[in-house]
Give the backbone structure.
Amino acid sequence: MKALPLIALVVLGAIVALAYPATSEQITVTAEVPTYVSVVFNYNAVSFGTVQPGTIDYPAPGNSQGLYNVTVSSNVNLNVSIHRTAWTPNDVLTLKFAHALSPAGLTPGVAFEVTIDGTTYSFSEIGEFQEFHGYWLSVPSTAPAGSYSTTVTITYTP
């Protein structure tokens, strides 16, 4: 058996390469990523204790320590609505609410009143983060004595 000369192998390789040209194809790849929102509250009650008539912007115990916080995880911007029911036995108290990404950002100066009609604020944070809540109570000097309560509803929506 006789070996092919090197030049014959190169020519044969070139012919084979010409006989089988390379081909390519563009492939479209798609995927759907759904909206994801997870909100986990670390609290379910706020107690102001005894608040004297005539008190303005009395802070809920634990505001400055970040006691009232929520772990939020989302891949979209969120709108948050907050409203309350009427105070019982008399709807005469004023509740304020603030939110921040640290307890240091919670001051009555950035708080807004929580009303029966409610209000909405927005988050442009995406990912996982903690949102801290702060509450302040004002009691008019004419508020009748009693044990007061209201229910606050906070809703996170994409």
